[in-house]
Write a structure and sequence with these properties.
Layout lengths: L1 H36 L16 E8 L8 E8 L4 E5 L6 H8 L7 E6 L2 E2 L5 H7 E4 L10 H6 L7 H10 L3 H5 L18 H15 L3 E5 L7 H15 L3 E5 L11 E6 L2 E6 L1 H7 L2 H11 L3 H8 L1
Parallel strand pairs: 3-8, 3-9, 6-7, 7-8
Antiparallel strand pairs: 1-2, 1-4, 4-5, 9-10
Helix pairs in contact: 5-7, 7-8
The structure holds adenosine-5'-triphosphate (ATP).
Subcellular location: Cell membrane
Protein name: ABC transporter related protein
Amino acid sequence: LTQLFRPLDMLGMVYRTIRQGLTDMAEMFRLIDTHVEVADAPGAPALAIRQAGVVFDNVVFGYDPERTILHGLSFEVPAGSRVAIVGPSGAGKSTIGRLLFRFYDPLSGRILIDGQDIRTVTQTSLRAALGIVPQDSVLFNDTIGYNIAYGREGATMAEVEAATRGAAIADFIGRLPQGLDTEVGERGLKLSGGEKQRVAIARTLVKNPPILLFDEATSALDTRTEQDILGTLRAVAANRTTISIAHRLSTIADSDSILVLEQGRLVEQGSHAELLRRDGLYAEMWARQASEGGEEDLVEAAQ
Ligand code: ATP
C-alpha cells in the first residue's frame, strides 16, 4: 500500500509545488504590474541636465491609493542649493526620496528636474543623475577598490583614487598593506561605521551625480566621527543640488532652506534662523533636541 501511496504523495508534493509556483507567479505579475507603472514612456529621451534644479509640483501620493501620504506637496530645490527635509516620523520624508528616484509615480502632480517631468525621461538617465548616501551603506563582499569603482561603470583607477581623497579615506586605505585591493566584509577587513560611510561617499563621488540625496547619512556614528563626516559631506555637496533627509537638526541647520513636513504637508519653510523666529514646529523640534542633550553640537551647528 505504501508503494501505492508514495507516487500519490509525490503527486501531492508536485501539486503543492505548482500551486506555490502559481502564487509566486501571481506575486511576480503583481510586481511586474508595479513595474509597468514606472516603465519608460515609449521613445523617452534621456534626462538633459542643465543646472539640476528640482521641483515638486502639487505632488499627491500614497503607496495604497486609499491612504494618501503626500497631500499636494509643492517645493523647489534651486540648482546648486542645499535643502533639508525634516519632520516627525512618518511625515513622508523618505517617500519624497523614493519618488525622486521614480520607484513610484505620483498619483497626481509632477516632479521636474530642469523643467523635465521625470516620467517622460528614461529611468537610466534619471538614476544616473541622482546620487544617494544612504543611512546604512551596503558594501559588497569584495575589495575596497571594487566597492568604490562600482559607483560608475568604466571608472578609472585615477578616478577611484581621487574619490578616496574626496571622501577623506585615502590615508586610511594607504595604511592597509593591500590598499585598494583589501577585501572587506565577511571575507576580509571589518570596517567601522564611519569607514563604511566614507567608502559609500567615495562611491558616490565616482558616480559624480549633479543631484545628491543624503538620507540621514550620519545617524549611526559617534559625535566626533559625525562632525568629521559632515565636513566631508559639505565639501562633496559643494556645487551640487543637495536634498538632505534628516532627523537630527544639528546636521542640517546650515542648509540654504529647510522644509518642515508634517503628515505629508509642508507646514513651514525657511532658513534655520527664520524658522526659529517663527516659533512653530521647527522651533519646537529644535528646543526638544537641545534639551535631549548635544546642546553644544546644536550651538556649534547654528554658528
Ligand atoms: P521616518 O522619520 O520615521 O523615517 P518618514 O518621514 O521618512 O519617517 P516615510 O518613510 O516617508 O516617513 O513614510 C510615510 C508613511 O508612508 C508612513 O506612514 C509609512 O507607514 C508609509 N509607508 C512607507 N513606506 C511604505 C511602503 N513601502 N508601503 C506602504 N506604506 C509605506
